[in-house]
Amino acid sequence: AVVKQSSCFTGFIILMCVFSALEEWAGLGSIADYLSVLEYLLWVFTPLVIVFILPFLIVILIYLSILFLHVYKRKNQLREAYSNNLWDGARKTLATLWDGHGAIWHGYEIHGLEKIPDKGAALIVYYHGAIPVDYYYFLARVIIQKGRSCHSVADHFLFKIPGFKLLLEVFSVIHGPQEECVRALRSGHLLGISPGGVREALFSDETYPLLWGKRKGFAQVAIDAQVPVIPMFTQNVREGFRSLGTLRFFRWLYERFRLPAAPVYGGFPVKFRTFLGDPIPYDPNINAVELAEKVQLGVQSLIDSHQQIPGNILRALLERFPSKHKPQ
């Protein structure tokens, strides 16, 4: 018992020495002084934090109010959609929300929507941003203004994300076997695809290079389905979101494990303008390689015509403000 008491007393002495050393190192007389300093800092900075946060919350509430008005403005269309088909109503509701977000946050515009057929199939080929939020706005605008949905091809990893299954099913997203793509087009649907895919999303940059490699599967799909191809590009999409995929580690991670782990940053409220090029009609006399080159030239032409290189976030933000200059 004496030995046990002695060891406890020794442990207490050591603990007191540690506290004493911490106090000397921190330059405070006691732990109580340290807590008093923390309390003082909280007292000083809490009002400042509240002062800056409250206006931000007000702005969020204003934007939510605008978003609600966008939905309410189309209440009759939504009511009709829900009466016809439950999922049509859900699609139109989400399309209205996304269209409102695009209008509020990016002043989203689309030029050339008349090139999308009101009926019949077409393959839409687009440049892939770090996050393809512009493509979501495009899908929403097609649903609202054209009254039809557009099937989409997405990377396999999206289908592995928990909770995404229902969303992908409702919006007719497929993982891209050529046979399934051809089947969708032959059924008369629109189909959107980005040949650059995840690679372009992660490793392209503000100079907007197309990272398609020698991919020609999308062209073979168009030939097999005998449909036109419509090139598409969104101005400033790389200024809205950017990727750190140009860093060697993230590039190695993707090439070695096919893991798209490169961080994405941004969400800047820059101006987005989507441009649709002239449809490239079905031609039975050209092969997939020739059509792929033709489509790539079409997308590159849109980039050359409508995007200042290199992209600049500040310039893209300033484009949100009205100007006498016409959009490029």
UniProtKB/TrEMBL annotation:
Source superkingdom: Eukaryota
GO cellular component: a single term: membrane
Keywords of the record: Membrane, Transmembrane, Transmembrane helix
Name of the protein this chain belongs to: Phospholipid/glycerol acyltransferase domain-containing protein
Domain Phospholipid/glycerol acyltransferase per the UniProt entry, residue ranges: 109-232
MF-aspect GO terms: acyltransferase activity
InterPro entries: Plipid/glycerol_acylTrfase (IPR002123)
Segments traversing the membrane: 7-28, 40-69
PANTHER family: MONOACYLGLYCEROL_DIACYLGLYCEROL O-ACYLTRANSFERASE, TRANSMEMBRANE PROTEIN 68
